[in-house]
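ARCHIVE CARD
SHELF: 3
SLOT: left
DATA:
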Amino acid sequence: MTTSADAHTGSDATIAGDGTVTDRLFAANERYAAEFADPGMDARPVLRVAVVACMDARLDLHKALGLQLGDCHTIRNAGGVVTDDVIRSLTISQRALGTRSVVLIHHTGCGMEAITEEFRHDLELEVGQRPAWAVEAFRDVDQDVRQSMQRVRTSPFLLHTDDVRGFVFDVRTGRLREIDPA
């Protein structure tokens, strides 16, 4: 299998080709738009599911879960942790756009296992202002999935908390391992 990671052997200029990476992405969009046909769908996901996952570039969620365009809402952040902003997005997803199920996906080898809350302190020293947000670093991926499931299940803003399941994606095998919420 060939990925864009295979091209990451040269300088940043080589990766981007002519211009910046953003220029390359914009050019790709021009090619995409030239053949684009309106799929005629709205923002309501067909499967009525929201997936919360890590932003790690190794996770191709649609392929890993067998999803098509329009099947789900996808919410991604560093670690795939359930933060206040994730609750905000899930609340809108459920209350305004009809989702009923929540799937949480963390993964093996996550960068959030390698940093600590000291990251905020280091930022404060560097820029002179302490971030208002928590890093949400963790040492035990299974326990963090459990914590995320609990945050979803106990949120007063969410209408549908009976179908909340958590998984760890193995970046080496592509397999999901379900986490018992106990």
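SLOT: right
DATA:
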Amino acid sequence: MTHSITTQTRRGHRGPARRVGRSLALVLPVVLVLSGTLAVTRVNWTGSPAGSVLTASDITSAEVAPKAVAQAPQDVLRDHLMSELHEKNPGVVLTHLQEAVNGHPSLARHCTSIARALGRAAVRIYGASRAQSYARPVCDTSFATGVLAAHG
């Protein structure tokens, strides 16, 4: 008799838990997408000090240049990293690329093209052999591919 009570108790607890789990499975992705969208509007993509974070409603303000509004986040990141490549070695720039992708997963699909562009630029600035010495598995081997493409 104890066995049948235990089985009934387990079944009774499984029903509400299953319903809650299903509800969460439906609601959680929507909440995550909405919160991610809101978070992206608060990101400082300009590269200026952190105090100047823009919200989506600030985009239309007169302080923002039209060119800055037209640039996509991945373009802003690429331009920032390219200018940084002139000041710092490619290893530091690749670390910043990886940190940006880790912090903003929506940039992951652009990581390969940005790393290749950095590789090509590194060859122009540092030469092929020195640029290749900084190659790391950031965005797979895209930096090394860019170095090879610029050298060959």
